[in-house]
UniProtKB/TrEMBL annotation:
Domain annotation Arrestin C-terminal-like: ranges: 162-286
A GO cellular-component term linked to this record: cytoplasm
Xref: SUPFAM superfamilies: E set domains
Region (Disordered): 285-394
Name recorded for this polypeptide: Arrestin C-terminal-like domain-containing protein
Amino acid sequence: MGKLQEFLITLKDNKVVYTPGDSISGTVKISTAQPIQCKAIKVNCHGSCGVTNKVNDTDWLEEEQYFNSSLSVADKGTLKQGEHIFSFKFLIPATAPTSYEGPYGKIMYKIRAFIDTPRFSKDYKMEKPFYMLNNINLNELPDIYEPNTSNITKNFSYNLVKNGTVVLVAKTDQRGYIAGQVIKVSTEIDNQSGKNTGHVVASLIQKVTYHTKKPTHEVRTIAEVEGAGVKAGKQAEWKEQIIVPTLPQSSLAGCNLIEINYFIQVSLKYPEMSLTLPVHFGNVAVDPSLRPPPKARTASKTAPTPAPRTNPASPNSVNASAASPNPSSSPSLPPRPAPRPRPRSMCVTPSAPPAEPDMRGAGDRQSEEIPTKVHSQHQGPMSPRFSYAPGLVFPQSNTNPSAPHFSLSTGATIPFFTEGNGPAVPTSCPFILPPDYTSSALPHEPPPAYEDGFLTT
């Protein structure tokens, strides 16, 4: 490095994860081989967010700054040959959001040191990242204790003239989880048709929105469970579990450019139908003992329906009028003549499809249990440009081999997926938001009646 032999930033106790409102302190170590003229030595603490619409691009389209504090640790003078140590300390604002790193944006925090030299001399700078974790207490979310259930009904046609109905109901045991907990997914499928359904799939999906003039949506399938289909006219229940891996929080409070959402998507391959259940991920688990008591029903809902009033002077007037109607108000009509039967020689009886059993009235059907076919947890090594798991320890530069490593969230990325330092390539993942709740665009015409098929000669 020429005159400068060592330029190093060290945080106190080698701490790299901080909470909003903490103070961050450390030292700047400068070792010189010969004297260096300097105008000032400054230390800066900076936090900001930037988003773009190109993968791994740092030319931000939108930016926001959370804090930018500077401290001068040495004034104009000469740095003598040898070792110099300067101390610094900053206060982190309480509104700083949790750190995040994704392919389309970052929330980043840095400590930067500068040696400003006179004109025509080389300036020196060094930076060290640190990470912010704003703990989320799931018990403070307003809807965390509400039941998490959804249902959808699909009417479809098959074999050209047959119509069927499938009812899909799904629910989870709760709305909020922390890493390591299990999401219990319960699904009920009522196949009220004469055709077998396709297999059922439950997926844990992450959706990250990067807000620019034209927002970019990054959607990943974190975990996926696949079950068998339901036979014609059967009612079945499917229960499965998804382990929550280490993932970014559901909320980046204080950040207006990046939004993170998670949901469970349950879908059928045939007929095509799906529903979603929102879930939240935080740092403090849901405590069932803090569940508020159910709200008392309002008086309007529980008030009995008043009986119709009657005239006290003639209590039997209503019954009397009903028993003896006015004959003039309903004149008798002459009976219609019986239709003359058509000659058999002039009609042809068309062939009809076999009668379809009515599945809707079968309320006494036994509910079966759907077996699980595939259970895949997309967990593995990934590039650190993807979002990290808050609450864990984070990587330092390669110059410090003893530093701990990131724990990264995983899964395919839409519309791009990258591995290591390779180029981004498109992915064929079918789970793209928003889910399609629309029915088939084909017309559903009922089969012709028998009378319409008679031919006359």
